[in-house]
């Protein structure tokens, strides 16, 4: 899955459509190149309940990062079997590359500076 905010609320962020387009570009590229289907949507829409403390919500709502996405890799559980790692890395890279390209052609979004130094 490729998820965007919010996990704590069913209310979508102001730029949810742009984030959805970016996530969908990644999912489409992975499907086309690898035949693996990644679903896209808000974290809340996947969980069907509100969950606090997600990193994408913090990045988007607190630090004002306009595009906050998370990829859940195609594996069972948190530990991919060793024979699958190379394939998972390849499909993940294909998705990330497609999302970066989509960001490059997306409408200009103001990237504000974080209040905290990184």
UniProtKB/TrEMBL annotation:
Hydrolase is among the record's keywords: yes
Cross-referenced SUPFAM superfamilies: Zn-dependent exopeptidases
UniProt-annotated catalytic positions: 72 (proton donor/acceptor)
GO molecular-function terms, A-Z: metallocarboxypeptidase activity; zinc ion binding
Recorded superkingdom: Eukaryota
Keyword terms: Carboxypeptidase, Hydrolase, Protease
This protein's record includes keyword Hydrolase: yes
Domain called Peptidase M14: residue spans: 1-103
GO aspect biological process, one term: proteolysis
UniProt similarity note: Belongs to the peptidase M14 family.
Annotated protein name in UniProt: Carboxypeptidase B
């Amino acid at each position: 899955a490729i998820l965007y905010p919010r996990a704590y609320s069913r209310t979508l962020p102001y730029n949810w459509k742009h984030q959805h387009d970016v996530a969908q570009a990644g999912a489409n590229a992975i499907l086309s190149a690898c035949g693996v289907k990644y679903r896209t949507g808000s974290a809340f829409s996947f969980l069907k309940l509100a969950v606090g403390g997600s990193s994408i919500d913090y990045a988007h709502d607190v630090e004002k990062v306009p595009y906050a996405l998370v990829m859940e890799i195609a594996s069972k559980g948190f530990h991919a079997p060793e024979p699958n790692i190379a394939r998972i890395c390849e499909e993940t890279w294909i998705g990330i590359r497609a999302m970066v390209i989509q960001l490059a052609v997306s409408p200009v979004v103001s990237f504000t500076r974080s209040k905290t130094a990184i």
